[in-house]
Specification:
single chain; globular; antioxidant; superoxide dismutase; zinc; alpha+beta; two-stranded antiparallel ribbon; 3-stranded antiparallel sheet; 5 helices; EC 1.15.1.1; SOD_Cu_Zn_dom
Length: about 210
């Protein structure tokens, strides 16, 4: 088994509640494979055992191809929508320790597009669809994913009553008005016009443009 340390940023406020913090650390330490969990400078450092490299590699392969709802070729983040995958986010740069810190603002991919989807880091640099390799227009000849994870909705510590994240793409701010599972979860509710029934009234809805 390989050992790995994962740094998790948690918003406990300016001064963390000791009871909540201790309960969080105890819950993390009770999970299978977790060796230790400590709180330091606004983050929880979790030391955990990872399965073999081969198992991890197969896990990342299972996430599928690039997110591409428009059927476009692979490209660069700055390319127009019809010349890039929606999931083409470009390259990141890591320091000598292997740590990469970055912030991405994208004009094609939106937050609600990626809830329940995966993000991966590949073994090679993405050629952004400009290379001569046959896979350049497919994945930028970037090779096998070596790390991946699922983008899921988040809540404050012990504030989310759901034990299992649905991860089904339902917009976070609409989720509270929908069932947790089953019929009706993904169905769009009819939208009421803001100014409906106000045409013959002296009362104007505050959200109407007049």
């Amino acid at each position: 088994m390989l050992m790995s340390k994962l740094e998790v940023l948690v918003d406990f406020g300016p001064k963390p509640d000791e009871v909540i913090l201790n309960k969080t650390l105890a819950e993390l330490k009770s999970q299978d494979g977790v060796k230790d969990a400590v709180y330091k400078e606004g983050a929880i450092l979790v030391e955990t055992a990872l399965p073999s490299t081969q198992i991890l590699e197969m896990g990342c392969k299972s996430i599928g191809e690039h997110y591409n709802p428009c059927g476009a070729p692979h490209g660069a983040p700055e390319d127009p929508m019809d010349r890039r995958h929606a999931g083409d986010l470009g390259n990141i740069v890591a320091d000598e320790t292997g740590r990469a810190t970055f912030r991405i603002v994208d004009n094609v991919l939106k937050v609600w597009d990626i809830i329940g989807r995966s993000v991966a880091v590949t073994e090679r640099k993405d050629d952004l669809g400009r290379g001569s390799s046959p896979s350049s227009k497919i994945d930028g000849d970037s090779g096998t994913p070596i790390a991946c994870g699922i983008i899921a909705r988040s809540a404050g510590v012990f504030q989310n009553p759901k034990r299992i994240c649905a991860c089904d793409g339902v917009v976070v701010w609409d989720e509270k008005d929908r069932p947790l599972a089953g019929k009706g979860r993904r169905e769009e509710k009819p939208k009421r016009r803001c100014c409906e029934n106000h045409n013959n009234s002296n009362v104007v809805n505050p959200c109407c443009k007049v």
